Automatic annotation (TrEMBL):
<dbReference type="InterPro" id="IPR038770">
    <property type="entry name" value="Na+/solute_symporter_sf"/>
</dbReference>
<feature type="transmembrane region" description="Helical">
    <location>
        <begin position="69"/>
        <end position="91"/>
    </location>
</feature>
<keyword id="KW-1003">Cell membrane</keyword>
<keyword id="KW-0813">Transport</keyword>
<dbReference type="Pfam" id="PF01758">
    <property type="entry name" value="SBF"/>
</dbReference>
<comment type="similarity">
    <text>Belongs to the arsenical resistance-3 (ACR3) (TC 2.A.59) family.</text>
</comment>
<keyword id="KW-1133">Transmembrane helix</keyword>
<dbReference type="GO" id="GO:0005886">
    <property type="term" value="C:plasma membrane"/>
</dbReference>
<dbReference type="GO" id="GO:0015297">
    <property type="term" value="F:antiporter activity"/>
</dbReference>
<feature type="transmembrane region" description="Helical">
    <location>
        <begin position="231"/>
        <end position="251"/>
    </location>
</feature>
<feature type="transmembrane region" description="Helical">
    <location>
        <begin position="12"/>
        <end position="30"/>
    </location>
</feature>
<dbReference type="InterPro" id="IPR004706">
    <property type="entry name" value="Arsenical-R_Acr3"/>
</dbReference>
<feature type="transmembrane region" description="Helical">
    <location>
        <begin position="36"/>
        <end position="57"/>
    </location>
</feature>
<feature type="transmembrane region" description="Helical">
    <location>
        <begin position="127"/>
        <end position="147"/>
    </location>
</feature>
<dbReference type="GO" id="GO:0015105">
    <property type="term" value="F:arsenite transmembrane transporter activity"/>
</dbReference>
<dbReference type="GO" id="GO:0015104">
    <property type="term" value="F:antimonite transmembrane transporter activity"/>
</dbReference>
<feature type="transmembrane region" description="Helical">
    <location>
        <begin position="97"/>
        <end position="115"/>
    </location>
</feature>
Amino acid sequence: MDNLRTLLETRQISIYFVATILALLVGIMVPQIADFQWAINPALALILFVTFLQVPVTGLKKGLSDLKFLTALLIANFIAIPLLIAALLPLLPPDPFILLAVLLVLLCPCIDYVITFSHLGQADSRLLLSSTPILLIVQILLLPIYLKLFLGNSFVELIQVNTFIHAFMQLIVIPFIFAAILQLWATRSNSGKQITNSLSLLPVPATALVLFIIIASVIPSLKGQTVTVLQVIPIYIAFAILAPVIGWIIGRLFQLNIPANRALVFSSSTRNSLVILPLALAIPGYNSVIPVIIITQTLIELISQLVYIKIIPKLITKIPKEW
């Protein structure tokens, strides 16, 4: 089972691209059966459940005890990255739906497949994994505040607070509770332990399933959105280049060790597009351009990960000295 899990993790990028290609084919050739939006939330809940299952409840102490890494992680994702986004936003057209979509996807750091990508990039993925619940809770709490700051009065028109509360309960609280219950069962029962080990195979297949469901559902909406997609691609490419640099600089300022610095770079660069999509779909009267913009970021990010896992281990090879 361990060998199969390792195989899935090392081949995950190929698996994701196969799922993406299949979704594109289905969305283009048979759009009438490509509406899988009803399945997005259950599939996302599954991803988060198996992600939380990898974080021992007692292991949360590690995420809280390494205050230096946790502080660097929070500063990078919730201060430095929003400042980068603020610098990039003027390059976008002043369309509130476009701005909202870009903000939704770029303001939220990834909490699922970043774990395995960081592992492939020789980062401290366990440290990042133990910080996942903290990262997730903070982004949910801060996202409405940041949207209000960036969008002003238009935020009130586009977003309802109960949307975030509902999504938080459905996608985060409930999967976390079930994961914690199963972990406790695994400590007291061989059956629980076997089930937990079997579920550890699911993160990569579950992510591929979500990619297929979302992309297949969004592709029919691409008609007439080509210009918009072309407008956001340069922003996403700029983010993919600059965000790792920001993570690296903050890691050096905090004098993180090599694996922790790499983990910070991956976290700064990888966004929570799949988990944030239900928030976009729940916006009253949402424009079809929003999911298209969010998925565009996902596709660019997957390509970026191929680069990150190759160059980050080569570029971050020295423990920083005191500045």
